[in-house]
Specification:
With 592 residues, the protein is of the alpha+beta class. The chain folds into 4 domains: 2-56, no CATH class; 95-183, Roll (Pdz3 Domain), CATH 2.30.42; 189-390, 2-enoyl-CoA Hydratase, Chain A, domain 1; 401-453 and 499-552 and 567-591, no CATH class. The chain is 39% helix and 18% strand. The chain has helices at 5-27, 32-51, 58-71, 85-93, 120-124, 145-152, 209-222, 240-248, 295-305, 401-408, 411-422, 436-448, 456-470, 474-488, 491-498, 500-527, 531-540, 542-548, and strands at residues 78-80, 95-98, 101-105, 110-115, 131-135, 138-139, 159-165, 173-178, 180-183, 189-193, 197-201, 227-231, 256-262, 269-272, 284-288, 310-313, 321-327, 333-342, 373-375, 381-383, 392-393, 589-591. Helix 1 runs antiparallel to helix 2, helix 8 (240-248) runs parallel beside helix 9 (295-305) and helix 11 packs across helix 16.
């Protein structure tokens, strides 16, 4: 027992502090279950720490316990240790110290996936497709991409030296420059589209993003814009106060935009517009898709409830929960859901009830029986229970499995790297198009790599063979399955031709990004976006625009509701990387 005494002494100090905490809870009349649970947890932790056969890592035990606790709540809660604090700051501010590029993992070295225009990396001459070999004299061979990202970040004005290998260059290249404060614009593009209509793309809700939207709106007004398209597709949200400020650009002062309700009533708040608006009269269309969430839904929903804008696109994600950060010891933080938010009509658009879980832990969407009707300012009917339903639902094309695989395996990216090495210039984003010879060159490129993939048909067929073997039926169906396999053999060639239009668009966008960076890709996306001209038609037809804001519009006027089972092409200002985020083959990209 002697060997246990020093350990017991340390733990006893820990327990004294614990007892004080528990006592505080008890004597302040907090629910008895809280103090009981804390007492059980700390006692359990003590027993495991002292008596387990091998010495456990206490930090690891606590981290596992924390993760398990968060797992039982909604997915938006997060424990943020001190070393990850910079990532939180980047999410809320859009700023960090680094070189200004996205990187992704390759087979052995990280590769620069995208360079931000005007960044230190861009000014130094680094290119998308460059393979990073060394950072400040340290090899990054086989290092995980998150570690490389941290090595590339640093204090602004600090020196950084990279050794990179460029496609088609026989020798490695050295680049020496200084890091800087990198700001990722929340408005990557704004400009005039056809017939004098203005377009603003808002990609996230970081600190002061409303100023970027305001600047874009004023610029479009100076160019005599007759209507505005605010594009929130693919926007996952961000800061609530920024959403309120953006609504304020289009509606008068003292309008209720959103209010929150949580467990602690003293923290419930109403958020109203506080400033003089920029323009309360200009016709406004807001574009949304299934990825538009949180603050995006506040903006779209509030403008819909106030009958200030027509919402076009897909039903939004349905995140009606508010998170706040709470300080923890040792500079850690807890991001925790503190309330639900409600937009002016009184509806909450949360789609999933995380408090009601099945025995297996699964969750489900709010049932139709619990969905309620609400009224907009003009008396139009809107509903809660899951996202913002657009006034006009627009169907979108679906990416084929082949296109998704080509994107996820970075084959489109790699071909764009090769293309850039062979062509000094291309036409403008509005004019560039791959010709048939160049598309055939892409197919030849895939053949050189020995490209193969399993189609959905093959996947189902292989599963059928597997199950039939288990159930002893395979001999009966072998001739049929062999015949089917023979018929779909070599389907890559057939599908490359069948899906040529969509593959070409993805390739063209990737290639344009090499020459014209983010703005070029945005211009190309607008040119090829079928929802833009339909939005323009609505904005031009004032009678129709006004009638939509007075009476509910038929779902079939511009399109139909689409299935959410497959990735969409809805966000065409970029390929919309979010649409493939759940694909296990998709490479993680990190800012650096």
């Amino acid at each position: 027992m002697a060997s246990i005494k020093p350990k017991l002494k340390k733990i006893s100090i820990f327990l004294i502090a614990t007892i004080v905490v528990i006592g505080t809870f008890s004597f302040s009349s907090v629910d008895f279950k809280v103090s009981k649970s804390l007492d059980t947890f700390f006692s359990f932790f003590r027993e495991v720490s002292i008596f387990y056969v091998d010495k456990p890592d206490p930090e690891k035990l606590v981290k596992v316990a924390i993760d398990a606790m968060l797992e039982s709540l909604d997915p938006y809660n997060e424990f943020i240790p001190e070393e990850n604090k910079a990532e939180l700051e980047f999410q809320t501010t859009g700023e960090y110290g680094g070189m200004g590029a996205l990187i992704r993992q390759s087979t052995d070295h990280p590769i620069i996936a995208e360079v931000y225009e005007g960044s230190p990396a861009h000014n130094a001459g680094l290119l998308a497709g460059d393979k990073i070999l060394e950072i400040n004299g340290t090899s990054v061979f086989n290092l995980p991409v998150d570690r490389v990202s941290k090595m590339l970040k640093g204090i602004p004005k600090s020196d950084i030296e990279l050794i990179v290998q460029r496609y088609s260059e026989p020798d490695s290249l050295k680049y020496s420059f200084k890091r800087d404060k990198i700001h990722i614009p929340s408005v990557p593009y704004h400009g005039m589209v056809s017939d004098g209509m203005g377009y603003i793309r808002l990609s996230n809700f970081t600190a002061n993003c409303h100023k970027e939207v305001e600047s874009a709106l004023k610029d479009l007004n100076r160019n005599n814009a007759q209507g505005i398209i605010l594009d929130l597709r693919g926007n996952p949200g961000g800061l609530l106060n920024e959403a309120v400020s953006i609504v304020n650009l289009f509606v008068a002062k003292d309008e209720l935009v959103v209010y929150t309700r949580g467990q602690i009533k003293e923290f419930d708040q109403e958020y109203k517009t506080t400033s003089r608006p920029v323009d309360t009269k200009i016709p406004l269309v807001v574009l949304v898709d299934r990825i538009s969430a949180s603050a995006s839904e506040i903006v779209a929903g509030a403008l819909q409830d106030l009958d200030r804008a027509i919402i076009i696109g897909e039903r939004t994600f349905g995140k009606g929960l508010v998170q706040a950060t709470r300080p923890l010891p040792y500079n850690a933080q807890l991001k925790i859901t503190t309330a639900k938010y409600y937009i002016p009509s009184g509806r909450c658009i949360q789609a999933v009830d995380f408090t009601q879980r099945a025995d297996d832990g699964s969750i489900s969407f709010i049932p139709d029986s619990l969905i309620s009707e609400f009224k907009t300012r003009n008396g139009r009917t809107v509903r809660d229970g899951g996202g913002i339903t657009p006034d006009i639902e627009h169907s979108v094309s679906m990416y084929s499995r082949l296109s998704s695989v080509l994107y996820a395996r970075n084959l489109l990216f790699d071909y764009a790297t090769r293309f850039y090495s062979k062509h000094n210039t291309i036409e403008s984003p509005n004019e560039f198009a791959l010709n048939d010879e160049q598309y055939d060159d892409f197919i030849a490129f895939l053949n050189e790599l020995g490209f193969e993939y399993e189609s959905q048909t093959e996947s189902v067929l292989n599963e059928l063979v597997k199950v039939s073997e288990q159930e002893k039926y395979y001999d009966m169906i072998q001739s049929l399955t062999d015949s089917l396999k023979a018929q779909i053999k070599g389907k890559e060639v057939v599908e490359m031709e069948a899906f040529k239009p969509e593959i070409k668009k993805l390739l063209e966008e990737e290639i344009i990004g090499r020459y014209y960076l983010q703005r070029g890709k945005a211009k190309y996306g607008i040119t090829n976006d079928m929802i833009i001209p339909k939005s323009v038609d609505i904005l031009k037809n004032i009678d129709k625009y006004t009638s939509i804001l007075v009476e509910p519009q038929s779902d079939t006027d511009l399109g139909e509701q689409v299935s959410s089972n497959y990735p969409s092409m809805g966000n065409s200002s970029t390929i919309n990387r979010n649409m493939l985020v759940f694909n296990p083959e998709h490479s993680m990209q990190l800012p650096s």
